[in-house]
Write a structure and sequence with these properties.
By secondary structure, the protein is an alpha/beta fold. Helix 4 links the parallel strand 4 and strand 5. Helix 3 crosses helix 4. It is 48% helix and 12% strand. The chain has a 6-stranded parallel sheet.
Length: 397
């Protein structure tokens, strides 16, 4: 094991476990004043937990306002919400929902004290004005297990269409004060969402593990997350109790760790491609990850074997193969082949759609590739050629 220098940015205070949602009202009250609740349209406020949660807030003396997020958040949604609630003396923002809800809430919390547009700070497409903070205190409560947004400093915002984009508002001031992870909130997730979000979490763990910036500290977290994924994902997806409850607990944990690892060491080619794919086409982020992770892993391994046979990612891919297959008696080359086969098998078992289902065609490849070399692609374990990136797309068209 090599111990090269590394640094770790700060994390939220983490509270994990079944029933931990019940802690949120008291945490909210500790900030005083008024709270802004950001939720999905139905994912939390449409469940039986909503009335009791609101009652608990009010019993703690919390005054609250509410806004919903029904799709991937846009800069306009953030700006409109900041304008609407900027004069309300919001003391704390609470985001309860999936990655889109948490990303929106994170950006809203960051801009409420300032009132300016998020386009001032959005990477790559904004006005390139440094964000100085402070942010309104933010409590993140994920109700899905996929993005790990509760542990990151970036809010991913998008505009969809031919000239669209998917970019981050990113700063350490945006890291949540608290990440409250209650696996019971996953009970309302439909099967297809568990599949897509779970594969997003796994892809984030795998890509962090083989990242160019990987280090032993983050490797340990990524390995723990992949182990939890192996033990819990299919139980959560199949939905047969009581195994499903244990599976949801494992997946909530794996998703949290995936957010921590990606925030520290970055991701890889799948997420490099996810940005333009999600911007130009109506394809959910988790579907991108689940449908492409096998092809991207195969192309990465082939490129490393051909050009960088001493790259440590090769041994790491083999380690993951042995973990997921459950066999320690196989050599590295066989383990890597079996890893690729297993990931492809998962995509079919979970019935994850191919790219062509969302209107993506070969003629679109050049534009997708040209827009894929953002921050995620920069930490891929090897620099891929345009032809290799196109090969990933071709395999899942």
């Amino acid at each position: 094991m090599q111990f090269k220098p590394f640094s770790i940015s700060r994390l939220p205070r983490i509270s994990y476990g079944r029933g931990r949602l019940n802690e949120v009202p008291a945490l909210t009250a500790s900030y005083g004043g008024k709270a802004l609740l950001v939720t999905g349209k139905q994912s939390f406020c449409g469940t039986e937990r909503w009335p009791s949660f609101i009652e608990s807030l009010e019993m703690q003396g919390v005054r609250w306002l509410h806004v919903t997020v029904s799709s991937e958040p846009s800069p306009d949604l953030v700006d409109q919400t900041v304008s609407r609630f900027g004069g309300e003396a919001i003391a704390v923002v609470i985001g309860i929902g999936g990655g889109s809800v948490l990303d929106a809430a994170k950006a809203i919390a960051g801009l409420l004290p300032h009132g300016n547009s998020v386009m001032d700070h959005l990477e790559g497409v904004g006005r390139n004005i440094p964000y100085r903070g402070p942010s309104t205190p933010f409590i993140a409560v994920p109700s899905t297990a996929g993005t790990g947004s509760e542990a990151t400093k970036n809010s991913v915002l998008s505009v969809q269409g031919p000239e669209g984009f998917k970019k981050s508002f990113r700063d350490e001031c945006l890291i949540p004060e608290y990440a409250v992870i209650d696996p019971d909130l996953l009970e309302s997730c439909p099967r297809d969402l568990i599949a897509a979000d779970g594969m997003d979490a796994f892809t984030q763990l795998l890509e962090s593990y083989v990242s160019l910036k990987a280090n032993p500290f983050i490797d340990a977290l990524a390995w723990s997350g992949m182990t939890a994924f192996k033990e819990g994902f299919f139980a959560a997806w199949e939905g047969q109790e009581p195994e499903a409850a244990n599976g949801r607990a494992a997946m909530a944990y794996a998703s949290l760790l995936s957010g921590i690892t990606l925030a520290q060491v970055g991701l890889g080619s799948v997420h490099g491609l996810a940005s333009p794919l999600g911007a130009f086409f109506p394809i959910p982020h988790g579907v991108v990850c689940g449908t492409m992770v096998a092809a991207a892993t195969e192309i990465n391994i082939q490129a490393i074997e051909a050009r960088e046979p001493d790259n440590p990612a090769l041994a790491k891919y083999a380690q993951v193969g042995r973990l997921l297959i459950g066999r320690n008696d196989i050599g590295d080359s066989v383990a890597r082949d079996l890893l690729i086969e297993l990931l492809a098998e998962w995509s079919e078992t979970l019935q994850l759609p191919r790219l062509g289902n969302y209107g993506i065609r070969v003629a679109d490849f050049a534009k997708i590739v040209a827009n894929s070399r953002g921050s995620s692609m920069k930490t891929n374990p090897i620099v891929l050629t345009d032809a290799e990136i196109e090969a990933i797309l071709q395999r899942r068209l």
